[in-house]
Design a protein that fits this description.
It contains 5 helices and 8 strands; from the N terminus they run βαβαβαβαβββαβ. It has one domain: Rossmann fold (3-Layer(aba) Sandwich). The relative contact order is 0.22. By secondary structure, it is α/β, with parallel strands linked by helices.
Length: 183
């Protein structure tokens, strides 16, 4: 199986506009930054959370707390991923209890990553509210999970793949739609 490029869904400017809109929506829904924290899900959710925090700080004058969450050991498909999965460091340097937490990720697909993130976060304490922000929602949910903030909704087939590239992890910003084809 190979991945063939099908379409560019977002360029760097589109991505920045989507994150700017999401930052404004987060501020509006949460009535500012008091008690607000953004927690990025490794890998690409981490820079998304950082960018959103920077934007919120620019608009409100106060930077929300940020954290990094590794959900590897909370996944229900751990045995399917790898014999020795890569476990990254969770860094949530604040008490989540009573906080308004926005989990941040790049793509919402089946909902299983979000479920694992919820489990990992609740193991740290009892947040007052947990919200979910994603850059792309591609559909095909297997669990009753939805995002509160979405950069772009992209209906896809199961033979398609969404590839998010971020400057911090990939050297450039953009979102591509790829097609999985037999080689």
């Amino acid at each position: 199986m190979t991945l063939n490029p099908k379409a560019t869904l977002m360029d760097a400017q589109d991505l920045t506009r989507a994150l700017t809109r999401i930052a404004h929506e987060i501020i509006e829904r949460n009535k500012g930054t008091d008690g607000l924290a953004l927690v990025g899900i490794h890998t690409r959710g981490v820079p998304i959370a950082e960018r959103l925090a920077e934007l919120i700080e620019r608009f409100e004058g106060t930077r929300p707390l940020t954290g990094k969450l590794d959900i590897t050991l909370y996944r229900d498909d751990l045995t399917e991923i790898a014999l020795q999965p890569i476990v990254r460091k969770t860094e949530v340097p604040f008490d989540v209890s009573g906080m308004r937490i926005v989990l941040c990720d790049d793509v919402l697909y089946t909902g299983r990553t979000a479920r694992a993130a919820l489990d990992a976060l609740v193991d740290m304490g009892r947040p007052g509210v947990i919200q979910y922000a994603v850059l792309v929602d591609r559909g095909h949910r297997e669990l009753p999970i939805r995002a509160d903030y979405v950069g772009k909704n992209v209906p896809t087939s199961r033979s398609e793949v969404i590839k998010v590239r971020l400057e911090e992890t990939d050297g450039a910003d953009g979102v591509e739609l790829l097609e999985l084809v037999d080689a």
